[in-house]
Amino acid sequence: MKDVITSLIATYDVTGKYFDVDAIDKLNGYFATASARIESVKVINANVSAIIKTAASTLFDEQPELIAPGGNANTTRRYAACLRDIDYYLRYATYSIIAADVDVLDERVLDGLKETYNSLGVSIAPTVRAIELLRDASKELVKAAGINTVDFIDEPFDYMGKTLADSSL
Questions:
Q1: What average pLDDT does range 102-114 have in this prediction?
Q2: 82 labelled as ligand-binding?
Q3: Which residues does 102 contact at the CB level (< 8 Å), separation at least 6?
Q4: Which of 48-62, 106-120, 122-136 comes out lowest in average pLDDT?
Q5: For 107-125, what is the mean pLDDT?
Q6: H helices present in the chain, as ranges
Q7: Which candidate, 31, 43, 29, 26, places its Cα nearest to that of 147?
Q8: Where along the chain is (2R,3E)-phycocyanobilin bound (predicted)?
Q9: Is residue 124's pLDDT more than 60?
Q10: Of the listed ranges 3-7, 14-18, 156-160, the one predicted with least confidence
């Protein structure tokens, strides 16, 4: 897993260059948002159950066919697997928020996910929607906790959603 710092060092080391203005700006941005990222993750971690419950209920209200007979979340086992996956996306999003880098999402979540879901007959679209709902619920709680700088919360969720949506074309 990389963060902004290790990514920058790796990039500049390969080219044998010293940090330039762009690298310094990225580092400044990383450190300027560090407290807000940490506090945001604390809020998310303290509300994991509520975030997952909100995302799942909204998803199943919007797409009742998922829990209807024949749906991908119909049986208790499949429903539990769906909730487990939603939890998984949220947990790795928090890692990405702390790192200010999406590398962990590629390594631990996205690589092979489309193939796995396709082999199981699981549609990607509800997964993308669940990730959007996780983002929205997380941002709402973080804002309610008085953390005003929350744009960085979008990055991991949007990255997962876009990558999955693009890979399903």
A1: 89
A2: yes
A3: 96, 155, 156, 159
A4: 106-120
A5: 85
A6: 4-15, 21-32, 34-46, 48-62, 76-99, 103-105, 113-120, 124-144, 151-167
A7: 43
A8: 72, 77, 82
A9: yes
A10: 3-7
| Spatial separation of the C-alpha atoms in residues 131 and 36, rounded to whole Å | 21
As a whole number of Å, the end-to-end CA separation of the chain is: 28
Q: Round to whole Å and give the CA distance between 50 and 42.
A: 14
CB 135 within 8 A of CB 158: yes
Q: In 3D, which of 143, 142, 135 has the Cα closest to residue 42?
A: 142
* Backbone CA torsion sign across 33, 150, 52, 47: positive
Q: pLDDT at position 168, please? A: 52
Using only the alpha carbons of the chain, give its radius of gyration: 18
The reply to whether 108 sits in an annotated binding site is: no
Output the DSSP codes for 62-92. H-GGGTSTTSTT-SHHHHHHHHHHHHHHHHH
pLDDT in the model for residue 155: 97
What are 163's two structure tokens?
Answer: 């990558």
